[in-house]
Structures are given as C-alpha cells and as structure tokens.
Write the structure tokens for this entry.
Amino acid sequence: MKRISTICLFGLLLLVLSCQSGQSIETSSLRNNRDIPLSRRGSILEVVSPSEILVQAYGEYYGQGSSIREQHKDVNEQGTDMALLDARRTAVYLLLFAGSDPLLSTERERLLFDQQSMYFYAPENLRRYITYEETLFSSRLLLEEGTAIRVSKRFTIHKDRLLADLTERNIIVGQTALLQTVGNPILMVLPDAQSSKSPISVLAEDVVARQSATVIQSYLTSKGYEVVVPEQSAELSQLISSQQITDYAYQLALAIGSDIYLTFSGYTEEGAYGTSRYVATLSAFETTTGRLLGSETGYSKERTGDDMVSVEEAFNGAIDRVITRIMNYWKSDMLKGIQYKFIVRLPEQIDAYDAESLQRAFLQAVSDISLSSRELIITDQTIDCLVWVDPDAYDRALGVYQALQDAFNRYGTGAALTRTSINRKLLQLVIRN
Amino acid sequence: MKKALSVLLLALCLMPWTIDAAQQGSYVRKSITALDTVYVFPLARPLVYNRWAFDMERFQQFLRFYIEMPRFDFNEIPDQLKRTFSDSMRSQFTMNTQRLTELVHDTIVSEILAILNAPEIQQARRDNFKDEASFQTFAATKAHSYQMTSEELAALYNSAYIYLPYISSASVQFNDEGRDIIHIAGGIIWWKIDVSEDGTSSVRKVLQADTWTMGFVDYQRSDYTFSFGNMVWYLSAFEYAVHDAMLAFAKNLSVETKNFDEFKLQAQIVQREGKTFSFPLGRNEGIQLDDGYYIMGYREGTDGEAVPYRKGFARVVYAADNISDPSTLSSARQLMGTRASIGDVLMEHPRLGIDMSIYGGTTTRSCIQPEHVTAPSADPGITSESTAQFHLGALFSYNLAPILQIPQVFLTFDAQAGFPRTASADLATLSILSPYVGISKGIGGRLYARAGLSAGIDFLTAQYSFDGNKHTITHRAFGLKGMLELGYMLNADWRVALIGSYKHGFTPYATIYEKNDIEQSFYSIEQENLQLGGVSVSIGFTYALGSLPFNVFGFLDTLKQ
C-alpha cells in the first residue's frame, strides 16, 4: 500500500512538473517569438504631418538559455539590439492596433493582417515605415534580475506607407478602391457657429476659424478627399431657406451635397508658466441624416506665443483620429451602395386615401431602383427617406431621379413626380396631381 | 603578510559601490548665479579682513575659476543687487543657513526670474531644454516654431542655482622653527530656485559642502611669485601661503560641486566599438581627456521604478569639440566592469586630477662605503659597504592629459625616504631623502603599464655619536630615475602596482659636515664611488584624490583645455 502511494505521489509530482514545464515552454515561446512585437506598449504622441505620427514605443527581450547565467549573458550580448527591434515593431503595432481609432478596425482586417504580419514586422520594412528614430533611449531597464531588458524610444512612423502596404496586400480597402467604387466622398468643413450666426460669416470674420478650416481642409486634401468650401450666395441661401431645419451646418451640407460634413470649434486656455494652449474640437456628421460619426478633441502643447501653430497642432491631432472614423463609416456605407436623401412633397389638397396611395407608389418605386432604403419621416405632406443605390447602375443623382420617375410612373397613380432641386446627395421632389 | 595583503586586496575589490541618485539619460544645463561675495564667520574675520594677508578679490577669482564651470550657464545679476545682499549679510554679526536662505530669496530670486523670463535668454538657452525628438514635432518640422513649451520652461525655471562660499575659520599656526601654517576651513552653499506653475518661487538649500585647506609659510624661499593663468602676483611668504590655501580651497569646492548629483555630467552611450564608446558630451560641458565616468545601468525596482546601478568604469579618450560642431561625440574606453551597451549611461566621477601613491620596497646596487660616512677624526659610521636599502615614498601624479591632449601623461612629484641597510653594530643611522620631479606615461586599461623618467636630488644623511660628539654628514647628489610600473585598477579610485626602477646617482655636488649641529668649514669626506641610486622594486597603492588640503601643481589648472 505504502509502495503504491509512493508511486502515485511520484506520478503526481511528474505530472505537475510536466505541466509546469509545458507552461514555461509556452510562455517562453511567446516571449521569444522573434517575428512579432512582444512588448506592445507605448503611446501615440503627436501627428507630425498628415502622413507621419510620432510615437513612443517600448521593446522587450527575454534572455535565452537554460540557466540564469546564460540568460544574463544573452541579454548582455544581444538584449539591447533585440529589444530595440521589438520597440520598432511595437511602434508600427501601435498604429495598427492601439488607441480608439486603429488602422485595422475590423476583425476581418486583423485576421488578414495576422496572416501576413511577418512582412510588416520584417526589419527591412520597418526601416521604410520608420522615418525617424530617436538616438537616445527614453529608458532602458533590466528586468527580472537581469534576464530580460526593456527599452523605450520615440519613433516617427510614415502612416501612408503603412496604409499603402496594407491596401496592396488586401488587408484593408484602400481609399483609391473606395473612390473607384463609390466616387469621390465630398466633405465640407464649417465652424461650429452659434445658431444665430452663419458659419460662413464666422469663417469670413474670424481669423482663427479661417486658419482652423484651412488646416482641416489641407489635411483632407492631402489625403485625397474632395473638400467643398461653402461660399455665401443667393442660390445657396434660397436652397437653405427652403428647408425647415434650424441646424445651419446641416442645412449647408445638404444644400451643397457633401457626403460628410465636419464642424469645428476651439478655444485657448491658460497653461503653466504663462503659456497657453489651444483646445480643438472636431465632429464629423453624416450629411443625409446629421448623424454624428465621430467627435474628437485635440490639444496643442502649452507654449508662449505662436498661436496659429498651436491651432494647427491641435487640429492635426483631432482630424487624424476623426478621419479614421470617417473611413470606417465610409467602408461600411460603401457596402450598401451610394446614399441619397429624398425629400418629397405631396399634393396639399388630397384626401388621406389618395395620399397613402401616392406614398405607397413612391416607396415602391424607391424599392425598385434601390439596393436598400430607410424612411425617416412620412407625413400626409412629406416623405423623407434615405436610399442606397447601386453605383454601377446609377453614377449620378440625375440618373437616380430619372429612374425613380420612370418607376413611379409605372405604378399609374396619375400623379407626376417632378424635381424642385437636385444635388449630389439631396433630391427635393414634388408629386403633383 | 601575504595573507593580510590578500585580504586587503579582496576588501578593496569588494568595496561597495554606492549608487548616487541619477536621471537616466542626459545632463540638462543648469544656470547659476554668483553672489560675488564670501560669507565670513566671526571666527575667521580677524585673518580674512586683514587685507594684507587675505585678498578677497583673488579668493573670489579662484572660486570663479573653479566653480563657474562650462557645464553651467550664468545668470548675471546687477552689481547693485549683489551689494545689497552683501551689505545685508554683513550687517548682522552672525547668520545661519536659514537666515541666509531667506536673504537670498528676498533679495536675489526675483531678479533671477526676471532674467529667465527675458525672451533673449530663453532664446539663447532653449536648445538646452529641447531633446532630439522635439525637433521632429509638427511645430518644429512644419511650423518652424521653436518656442519653449511649458515643460521646457519648467526645466528652465527649475534649473537655476545660486552659490555662496563661506569661510568658517581662518587661522595661523605659528611654529618655533618658522614653519608657520595657514589653515582655512569653510565651504560652499548651493541653493536651488523652485518655481511652481503659477510662478510662485521659493529657494531651498540643496548642498552644503565643507573643506579645509592649509598653506605652508616658507620664509626661506627667495621668490614668492604666485602665478595663476595670465596673472602673476609678487607676494610675501605669508601671502604666498594664504594664496596656496585659497587655491586648494577653491579646487576642493570645485570637486564637491561636481559631485552634487544634479551637477554631474551624464550621457547615454550612443555608439560602441569594442571597449570604446561614444557619448554626446564635449568641451561645451567641460569634458576633459582622462576624466573618469561610471557606466550606469538601470534595473527595474520592486515598484517598477528605475534603479541605477554601477556596471563599470570608463575613461575619456577623446574630448569632442562640440562647441564648433554640436554633432561630434566624445569617446571613452571601458576599463572595468561588465560590458557596456548602447543606452547605458555614463556618469561623471569627479576627481582632482591628481593621484597619490604610497609605495614601499627595496633598492639594491646602491653603494655607500664606510669612508662616505666617516666624520673627520672619528670612527667610520658604518663598518662595511651598504648596497641595499628599504624605501618608502609618496608620489603625486598630476594628470597633464587635459593640457597636452595626450592621455595618461603625468607630471610627478616623488618624495622618497630610503633607509640603507647597515650592520646592527654600526654607529651611524643612514637615511636618504629623494625629492624627484618627472614625467610619466601610462597605457592599458584595468591592467596597465606606466613608464616614467624623473630627476631630482638625493640627500644622504648619516648621523652618529662618537666621543661624545654628534656627527652629521650630508651628501647632496643629483639623480636620474627611470621607472616602470605594472598595475591593476581595484576600482575607480584605487590601484595597486608593482614598480621597478633604476636610479642613477651622480657624484655628490655638495657634502656638508656638522659637528654638534654646527656646520664645519674645513673637512674632507670621501665622495667618490658614492652611489645613492640602484635598482628598486616596490609595491604601491594609488588613490585618485577627490580633495587635497594643500596646493600641488595648482598653477597648471589654468592651462587645461
């Protein structure tokens, strides 16, 4: 009995030991997979330019060897170089995965990236992405009694090169691909003016607002977006006043026909040691619905003087994050087709039965020409809806209008569908008896 | 003996390396303000305020030279303000540190802040507070804006220091034989200005270092010309000794100041090739050839903090001229410790630049025959020829590398006492005093070799009594000595060495005979074949001095580049 229990105990001990060694092998292999970043710690510091991001990244290396002495030796011999390589990989990793708006935003993109990650983390490609590496370490620490090392440095990553490679390897849908499919997304930039003031007049009068708009427009154009700049005109005023909406920016966007509009605001606040910093807020909206797509705040450094530099610095930080959300929205919307907003006015003096027949016929016609649609408001007098159409079938708003008119006529209501105004996003229509 | 030596060696090797608090990375230039005055405690006033002896202006000159180092920027405050401070200080009989701190705050700080607020000062110093990455930001790359940020301003405002030297006692120790000694004790107080984000300022004492020095009054010298840099002063014997003490005082305070953690030069290793590596410091910060630097590593503490530890020691082999070309790097060679890596930090280990060696050993092939030490009309002092001697010596080596720009070249002053072996029955006691001056050159790392050549005078003194008379015979002979030293660095400051030397002693140029301490005029004492040199083997210990209570080779300090 005693013998059996001894054997059992020995067996149990062996089992525990083998489990432990299995765990350590697993941890060790994770730690020493030399092709992917190990540390994955760091932070995005600043948007240096529309293409470049300054980051601080940590890198780690765990010494190889069966004994602590060997691990020490390994860390001494190649620890710094290997940890530095890990820091470079982590710098790229941060842009790809970290923060609220990483480049890889969907699970599918991440899975695709994982299959090709070695390409991106290869030292020769890292050299292409990293345009600047600080000479000195921000920190360099030995860990775990000298058997591991952690370093940190600042790097500038060329985001566009990284994006180009991600697109080329079909990990993300590139902007060019988007443009080819759904046409140029048109963005409009406006100050977030008080309701009593027109954003256009704010732009005309306020130097900081003008500078802010220029910064955002400059960023967007450098990324290939089409940006429209609203200017005060009689036609525009008329178009805006024809809508019963109080949000001036929304009205403008609809009137102009931008896909997305961005509003911005900002203020200067006092910093330490007599300095000041600029706080910029930027929000992006879907034009057709006024739905908020993303809102971000950017901060400049606290400095003395150079106010316009602070304005640009703050907006650079904000726009970079907002644009990622715009892209994410755009990608998902692209799958539905091209979006249009229809506002239809029905005849005033008809009874409820006729009104309902006209509404049904109109919505049926919409259904015939679109991939999908969504009704926002339906009253006896008005139909307000969103429509997504196939970009291959209809590449212009006028084509959509004509197809809708034909489809509506097919239902033989006896009423005529005519247009009041048409722009890129908005079709204002009237059904007449 | 052998066992004891082994234990001593082991103890020196294991001497704990205390860790100074340090920032990982680089030295940020500090700005300093000199109050151009010295606080003299009541006890010291009788000597110090005697202008005949103590020249306060020259004292301040020495202090400025040794304290106001290239690593600092200077905030010059108006003379009027300095006078106000000085008058307030002197108007009170006694002052304590607390009161001095208050006085500094009330009279000086607002002016320093005004200086730091000046746009032209900020413009001139902004690069000191900007790191490399700050030139890669949007503001610098696109907007070309180099305005200081609040973090940089915080560093500028909070790196201002004020210093005040003080003399706590000064006295003359009179000696019946006319060898008076001047003693000066005192130190230096450093204050740091703290400026909070809202501009509120305060002053706190961050360092109080004491020192004590002395000067020897030599009334028998023919020349009392004291030179320091371009200045030459013709002094009295007493003044000369005071100047010596003042200079040693200022020099010691210089090392004490450099030893303050916040003032220590430090930089990361950015390149490495074998045991030689480069780091971004240079003449702009006052780096000099052969300066010693600890190699610091950092390990993670229990709370995740960076804990510095010493990895080794290195010596500067090339001091870069980063004034004309800021991108050039200085180089240092690792002498001991585990292999340094890129990213390790070099931290200054300030020393005087003077090594002191104590050594002892034996000399053979010298030749002192009985007739060399036989007084007229007396029996010989020794009965047989003495060819061997024991010796003990002290060697001061002043590092000339910062002057000559050749590493490990030393100006040496060697004071050796030799004791020729005689028979126990011999009447005379023989001793040889050998002051030598020379030059030596070292090579190698932790294990090193050094060769030197020196010249000097040997004084052989034989004393004995015969027939109730005291006979003293002194031979003075020139000598020329060649030396070879093989040594090993025990740590940054201590070395142990085996020294072999050959000294050629010339025929004495003078022999003096004293009978009952009265010099005799007519006598004949044999000089031929007297050989005070020979072949010596010694073992010695060398220490890199951090302070020295008297002035040695101080006049050379102004030649350092």
Summary: Chain B has ten helices and 25 strands. The interface with chain A takes residues 24-26, 131-133, 136-139, 141-143, 145, 147-151, 153-154, 157, 195, 197-199, 268, 270, 280, 297-300, 306, 338-339, 341-344 of chain B (CB under 8 Å). The two ends of chain B are 45 Å apart (CA to CA). Confidence is low (pLDDT under 50) at residues 4-23 of chain B.
